[in-house]
Amino acid sequence: MATNDKESSATGIDNRPPMLEESDFESWKIRIERYIRGKPLGKLIWKSVKNEPTPYPTITVTTGEGEQQTQVTREKTDEEFTEAENNKERADIQAINILSQGLPRHIFITLNQTETAKEIWENVELLMQGSGLTKHQKKETLFDQYERFFSMFKPIYRKRRI
Prior knowledge:
This protein is 57% helix and 7% strand. With 162 residues, the chain is mainly alpha-helical. The protein has 2 domains: 21-131, no CATH class; 133-162. Strands 1-2 form a two-stranded antiparallel ribbon. The protein is rod-shaped. Residues 1-23, 55-78 are annotated as: Disordered.
């Protein structure tokens, strides 16, 4: 049974990752990590974000007979994958998809050529450096706003004291 966005939000069913708001990057990092860790392969997905993706599985095959035997290492075919290797590959793919879906279009377009979830994560961190106000800048802004507000009432306050 299909539901629309309002119904899914009302029932608490929301399968979309949190969208990055550039003014609130620190909060997004926490929310996206929690979202990822809540997925069925969450631990593997998060490892893919923080580390390099899992290397493609290989197998060593012996060819030839007798003294002419040689061992060749090759990549496994999909049919040769173990369940654990399938899960690791699935987690690598999901990590890229989740991060890509949680980015605004203009950031996604900028990072479109990245190939791993770790590259996406590191590049988003670089892009967002300095985009939010530091604690010191916030204090200065609030102090300036306070002074402007108080200066509007200084003439009124002086007249009453006289």
